[in-house]
Amino acid sequence: MPGYRGRSFRAWLFSIAHNTVIDLWRRQRPERPLDDAFHTPDTGPSPEEFALAGEARHTLRTYLVQLSPDQRTVVELRLAGLTGAEIAAVLGRSEGAVKLLHFRAINRLRALFGVQITDQAEEARDATPVQQPGC
């Protein structure tokens, strides 16, 4: 490690990684004429979609506040990508307790959003074709 000069080892290592990524990015950047930029479609969200997404995020935050602190924590950790087992380990609870908290939180959020869930048995019964005798 001849380049190491006694600074923070972590900062030195990060700067090496950062510079390596920047160098790779610069080498791979395609060069196109400026005129091509006028014909590039905008694939990002429209202003309307952006506003609707912001409103949805605001509504979700408003509803998350109405959950119990434990339910909110479980939902936030799930949204962060943790599994039920990982959440259980983080919170020091059983996986079953985390599943129950998550189930109750989702049901509460559904109620707040006005989503009605029909009975699964009714759905299964309605979806199953009736067999005629002798067929």
Quick take:
The chain is mostly helical. It has helices at residues 9-28, 47-64, 69-79, 84-91, 95-113, 120-127.
Description:
This protein is flat. The chain folds into two domains: 9-35; 47-116, Arc Repressor Mutant, subunit A. It starts with 8 loop residues before the first helix and ends in an 8-residue tail after the last helix. Helices cover 62% and strands 0% of the residues. The protein is mainly α and 135 residues long. The model has no long low-confidence stretch (mean pLDDT 80). It has helices at residues 9-28, 47-64, 69-79, 84-91, 95-113, 120-127. 6% of the residues are buried. The chain contains six helices and no strands.
Q: SSE order in H/E notation? A: HHHHHH
What is the assembly state of the chains in this entry? single chain
Q: What is the total number of structural domains?
A: 2
| Helical segment count | 6
Helix content: 55-70%
Would you identify the CATH H-level superfamily of the largest domain? Winged helix-like DNA-binding domain superfamily/Winged helix DNA-binding domain
Given helix and strand content, the structural type is mainly alpha
Look at the structure and give the mean pLDDT: 80
CATH top level label of the largest domain = Mainly Alpha
Tell the overall outline: flat
Termini separation: 81 Å
CATH architecture group name of the largest domain: Orthogonal Bundle
Radius of gyration: 26 Å
| Strand element count | 0
Named CATH topology of the largest domain: Arc Repressor Mutant, subunit A
Regions with pLDDT < 50 over 5+ consecutive residues?
A: none
Query: For the report, how would you describe the main beta sheet?
Result: none
Note the beta-strand portion.
Answer: under 5%
